[in-house]
Design goal:
By secondary structure, the chain is α+β, with helices and mostly antiparallel strands. The protein has a single domain, classed as Gcn5-related N-acetyltransferase (GNAT) (Aminopeptidase, 3-Layer(aba) Sandwich). It is about 35% helix and about 30% strand. The chain has five helices and eight strands, in the order ββαααβββαβαββ. The strands form two sheets. It has a five-stranded antiparallel beta sheet with strand order 1-2-3-4-5. α1 packs across α3. The longest helix is centred in the first third of the chain and has 19 residues.
């Protein structure tokens, strides 16, 4: 578990299904990340098992739930993913509409970035965004990532922006 001034970043559990259902059905999630076809609590539990808990088991890290420290209210997800299609571990984040614009994404992503470098010993991180996801791109630049390239992504010829964070460069 990571903590920041306002946030707690912890692993997901099956009890987080109502939050996951809400988050992955947010229109911005569908637009920028994709529709996972999950429409029920049971489907959300399955998504947690297959897409979140399996990362923890396989890698020892993954995407984590971000909650407000004072109330325990879940507001988003932020964490690390190792995709077969990318050479390095990438950082990802998504937040509910009510939590956007409050600095939670920056605060949690900064903590996750530093954890990846300082505690996990990773020498480089990457991130991908949809080409039109300007908010995420700006956040990555603020975190010290640099735009690297536009790469093919997905099965239908989509493109994504690839960002790179190299702590040795700083």
């Amino acid at each position: 578990m990571l903590e920041t001034e306002r946030l707690r970043i912890r692993r997901f559990g099956l009890d987080d299904a109502p939050f996951v259902l809400e988050l992955i059905n947010d229109p911005e999630w569908h637009r920028f990340i994709g529709d996972r076809g999950v429409r029920t609590l049971e489907g959300a539990r399955g998504y947690i098992e297959k897409s979140l808990l399996s990362l923890y088991e396989r890698l020892g890290f993954g995407l984590d739930l971000v909650e407000l420290k004072d109330s325990g209210e879940p507001v988003g997800m932020c964490g690390l993913i190792k995709r077969d299609t990318l050479e390095h571990v990438d950082i990802g984040f998504a937040f509910l509409p009510a939590a956007r614009g409050r600095g939670y994404a920056y605060e949690s992503a900064l903590a996750v970035r530093d954890y990846a470098i300082d505690e996990l010993g990773l020498d480089r991180l990457v991130a991908i965004t949809s080409p039109d996801n300007d908010a995420s791109g700006k956040l990555l630049l603020r975190l010290g990532f640099q735009y690297k390239d536009t790469i093919p992504w997905g099965t239908e010829g989509e493109l994504s922006k690839l960002f790179d964070y190299d702590p040795q460069r700083l």
